[in-house]
Predict the 3D structure of the following.
Amino acid sequence: MSFKSLGLSESLLKAVSKKGYETPSSIQTKAIPPILEGKDVLASAQTGTGKTASFTLPLLHVLSENPKQKYRNIRALILAPTRELAAQVHNNVKEYSEFLGLRSTVIFGGVNQKPQIRTIRQGVDILIATPGRLIDLENQGVLSLKYVEIFVLDEADRMLDMGFIRDIERVMKLMPSKRQNLMFSATFSKDIKKLAYSILNNPEQVEVTPENTAVEIIDQKVHRVAKNKKTGLIIKLISEGSWKQVLVFTRTKHGANRLTKKMISAGITAAAIHGNKSQGARTKALAGFKKGDIRVLVATDIAARGIDIPLLPHVINFELPNVSEDYVHRIGRTGRAGASGQAISLVSADEISYLRGIEKLIGMSIDLEIIEGFEPDPNASTEPIKPGQNRNKSTSRNNKSKKSSRNKNSNRNRNRNRKKN
Ligand code: AMP
């Protein structure tokens, strides 16, 4: 199968070959033809499968084939849950549209809106946006979605996790009812299916087969370890393995900051990215990591969405996520588009039940290894940690009160996230 046989135009083929892609990935082979035919598509695909090109390429083809409107209106809207993902999608759109006369821009919260307004006023064909800023600018009369021909909802599952359902519903009302809709999601809960049903019109369903998903090609390993020895172990693994580019996941922002400081004290260049960091700090950390100035990037799940680093060799779960699907998202950062990578999870007694859930989801058991000097604590409780619960040792009474205030905080953060994005 070649990109040419999928029916893409010469200009797009030129851009694809400039990117160095030789053959389309599985999701591209399956999603591009129905999108070119003008059908609505519901696609199940994780990050790392080449999903961005699978909707961007045919979207650009369709827009450039159709006659231009008299005025430059927004003809395609791509909605993404995070600023990082939106920026990443925009980079892809720019690269693939290099030889077409189409204009695009990206808007997201947390940064000055003036430059965004200026660009939109000059006219764009394709708008990539996070929901909050989009609605904000529409309310201000800066943009209109009345001429949207193609609507893409990317990472729909993450959109719902981040509480964007109301915003999505509002955006839907701003677009004409006759349009092509594409929805991408890594997971399919009941809520996602409900959303798909409300957005899509007789959609073609496409999914990548298990052989092609990241999980199958990634070398996965679990190190059972006492919780208080995790930091020592991660430093040992990175130092002794001389690993140069490692993405580490923690469950909390504080955990990310704490671990980053300890790595730096141990002489490993590291930076943290999470929702409390400014957009500038996140961009700088990511650029340093991509360039190789920073060896370790410590991230929380939400901040890591949309990070696109081709051929990322190592992902370490400093803590397992309590939602099994997030494990698949996390390790999807490595072994991208056919290249193999390594995903290591440090698992303490209280995470055993999460490990079981993950193994059930991916349908395989993960190889276990205990490293001398970093053995698990035989007396530790296997009681799972609840989301938002304090992980440090403290009395159970303290734990209770901290837990309830943290839960309140996490609700607050969720609301804040919605506003920022
Ligand atoms: P995505 O799933 O869209 O985040 O893409 C994952 C990575 O695969 C990105 O770095 C893309 O540039 C790359 N990629 C996308 N399509 C192809 C392809 N057909 N061949 C090789 N790499 C690709």
